[in-house]
Structures are given as C-alpha cells and as structure tokens.
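[retry 2/3] Hint domain-containing protein: previous attempt timed out, resubmitting with same input.
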Amino acid sequence: MLIFTIFIAFLLITNKINAADDEGKGASASSTDVSVGCFSGDSSVLLVNGGQKSIGHLRTGDRLLAVDHFNISSSEMFLMLDKETSKIVMFYTFTTASNHQISLTGLHLMPIASSNEKLLYIAARDIQLGDQFYVSINNRLETSPIVNITNELKQGYFAPLTMTGTILVNNIYASCFASVTNHELAQMFMAPFRWYYQLMRYTTVTDPFDNNHSDGIHWFVKLIYDFMSFLQPSGLQVS
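[retry 2/3] Hint domain-containing protein: success.
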C-alpha cells in the first residue's frame, strides 16, 4: 500500500507540473480522446442523513447511499471522473414498472438481474425492454422491469466515483463505471486510488484529487484508460 501511495503522489506532482507547462504553452487541460459514461445533470442521489442532493453538487467526502453485496449501505464520494455543466449530450432514459427513471450515456454500466439470478453489468446502449433494474423501495432492493426506453438530449453530465464503485441514482442501483466491460475489474484497478484517498484523509488534505477542477475528464481517467489499454485492452469499450 505504501508503494502505491508514493507512486500516486508522484503522479499527482508530475501532473501538476505538466499542467503548469501546458498552461504556459496554451494547451487545453480538458482535451482527451477518452469517452466516459455519465449520469445526466438532473439526476439526484440519496445522502446517508436522509436528504437528497443533485449529482452535480456532490463534493469530496459526501456520504451517500450505495450498494454493497445487494445491501444498501453508506459510501463516500472521493473522485469526480468526469463532469460537464453546460454541454448538451444524448442520453438513454430508462423507466421501470415501478416508475423509477434514470438517464445515462451509452457506455455507462448498469447492473441487470439475469434469469439465473446472477448480476450482470451491461452498457446502457445494450439494455433492452424487459431487462430488470434493481430499485430501492422502502430502503430495500427489488427488481423492476424496464417498460420504456427513450433517447433524450439533456444539458450537463457527471460521473462521481464512490468507495464501493456503486451508487443509488434516483433510487436505482447503478455502477460508477463506464467505457469498460467488467465492473469488478474496474473496481480492482481503482484500489490504489482508494488507498491513497483514505491515507490523505488522515492528514489535512481534504480533497486529494482536486475534484473542484474545471469541466472535463479527470486526468486520472486518461491515465487508467491508457494503463488498461496496455494491460487488458479487451476490458475496454469504445464509442
């Protein structure tokens, strides 16, 4: 863990130096070829204290409801993978028989209840009518079939990452990951970053990943994407 922490600290320092150089050269810090899946800006999450919060207003350390081994539990937002407050984007909007609704970009992973009762994570663009979402009803997870799928243009999107790698958005169980084929693999890749975050929280550093950065994909996402492209390219999805 110590080695990973030192490595991540080195990456953070290197990135700040490179960002300063790019700024001096007039380069755009948000330019990237990585495609990230996100939730629409009109989405909301449930906080541990019982309140609701717009997904775009989440801040580092916010305690919110997520899912861990099919149990609704508390988690913590520690990294905003991507955000755009004003960009207009096409979303897949899903409505369930229980009248729950969620809007996602096409590469975002969603957990689906399969016929053999195993959990499958499927990209939003591949979800079909009749597939079963997990929804929160009276603080318990229940399955509900999708009865309507539409494509909608909406303004703004956000991709918060929690410690569990899951999140309840509009009371629907969702993965925090996109552009990958395997939710568990993505969560494993993020372990060093979770360790680093936990260690830094014991110091005076309250936002080790600078989640208040300007709109655009976090540079960590590009780093992880490049690493996975080299190590296991079959685990990535592209638009």
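[retry 2/3] Hint domain-containing protein: The chain has one domain: 2-8+36-232.
[retry 2/3] clearing retry counter.
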